[in-house]
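Weekly structure sync - notes
Attendees: PM, LS, DV (DV joined late)
Agenda: review two folding runs queued last week.

Item 1: First target. Sequence and structure tokens pasted below for the record.
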Amino acid sequence: MKKRAVIQMTSEEEAKFIESSKTMILVTNGKDGWPHTMAMWFVLREGRPILSTFAKSQKVLNIRRDPRVTILVEAGENYEELRGVMIRGRAEIVEDRAFVEEVQIAFARKYVGGPFIEGTAEMVRARAAKRVAIRVVPLESVSWDHAKLGGGY
């Protein structure tokens, strides 16, 4: 059996790995042909990654020009610990203020945690005024989990 088949994650393993991760790398295509790569916070909605950024950011300009994106979630330091999921997909810019606010609140819960301090929700909603959400519609994925090799190479 090829090692590629051994280390590939199931769709359930991919979903669990992504859900447990803190950041993902978003790669958009710049107008000059060079990849534009950024680490991003994210939440999942209906199995799709949702990111958020300023409406005038380079990422958004790139996506408006070319919606093809690649995202990467990875972990591990030693070879036998390396795990990751790369997803190719199409990005959709969501400007709906209510949706962007909901995403900002979901980010606050995921990354700050605990109960909201008084006024936090209002502050998060105010931040949403200059932001958009980026919904990634996955088209294909590639995954790996080197722990499945049992210490071999």
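Item 2: Second target, run right after the first with the same settings.
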Amino acid sequence: MQPAQLAQLRPLLREDFADVVLGSILLVLGLAALGLGAVRARSTSRPLICLGVANFLYGLRLILETDLLGAWVGIPELPAVYLIVFITYVMPLPAILFAEWALGRGWLSSIRLALYVQTAYAAGAILIDAVRDPGTAMGINNLMVLFVLGILILNGILHLRKNPGALRAAAGTRSGRVVIAGSAVFLALVINENLVEAGLVPWEVSPEPVGILALGGAIVYAFAHRVFANERRLAAISQELETARRIQSSILPRKMPEARGIALAARYHPMADVGGDFYDFLVSDPGLGILVADVSGHGVPAALIASMVKIALAAQAEHAADPAAVLAGMNRILHGHLERGFVTAAYIYIDTGAGTMVHASAGHPPVLLWREAERRTEEVRQESLPLGRFRKAVYSSRELRISPGDRLLLYTDGVTEAVSPAGEPFGDERLRALMASSSAGPDGLADNLLGRLSQWTGRDSGEPCDDDVTLVVAEVWRDRTSAFP
């Protein structure tokens, strides 16, 4: 830029400096609100977008009205005037939409009526000005703005009367006080601007841009404050969930126990970061006890109860060979401590020396027993009450013979109740068929089952399920000399 041009712009800069600065701030504020609205959830994106458009349009109009921009950029005067009046007609619309978001349709749908009236006026005014001269339809613009403001103020007062605690609650927070102050400044200066333009007051002082900036800045501040506060809360919750996940991981067995004549595999996939499923073992010479449990509910509350289940099971170590006694003892410990929750559980004790498996259930899905010699799957089922709800619940044990090569599957209902995209559950029949078709060892069967569930539900193996999924596979060794007399 030549020195002569700079000398020409200096007086214009001094004259329009305030408008250029305020207009630039409003442009940036509008873009910031639009950016926040683009990345936020739908419930908060609409008010931010309305606010961003209103601030951007007002800032753009403020800059276009200065002589500095035309002299510097070289914008012809007539297109700039057309753009200014068109912006003036349209600018109230996002403000009305913002008010409708905050207050609803209003008394007798008056806010929605104001939106329709302003839309009709803006469309008609733009058409008239396009055909004739810019500003031809501007004569009643100030009265239209006063009409819209009157409706919004009336509905704001009615809203506060219906919700008397809203203003008190807002005044109790820093962001609320900022919005109240910004709104008061905005209303006072905008009303003053339109009264001055309509010639209804004797003075000519009209710092309306300051009011627009005060309100826009206050609302953007409030939204930003809420966003960052929510982010901090989410970060705290994520940290607490990670702690809960580590705690739950610590209550699950770190490795499979060594038991004579038994090969084991276990899989645990919670639907969230933490879940209510649980499995554990009681090693008791000469056999091994296996428990799989399912706490009602999900998430952290269920995980806390699962930790109680571990403690209750550990207290039954002396009864490890008696499944009915184990469940009865756990029920006594859990009763009265689960509020409305409950726990279903299946417990088996395998004694490869005696060639037996003893089973007891507390309202849990059946244990599946694959009999290698007969090539068939058998359901080991017992009707019983869940743990924790009934103090005098009675549990019974059932003993079955087992042979080398037999496999046992304990699982939670998240396996059979896993649904396909069409809404069909995986079901017992498919589980039994998979049990019969798998010739791999315990780890192979467990992985095949999880893979089949992923295919059935249409989810990747790492995606969360609709319910917690837990399973334990136990296989009797085929080497008779090491396991059976």
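Discussion on item 2: The domain at 255-483 is CATH 3.60.40.10 (Phosphatase 2c; domain 1).
Action: LS to circulate a short write-up before next sync.
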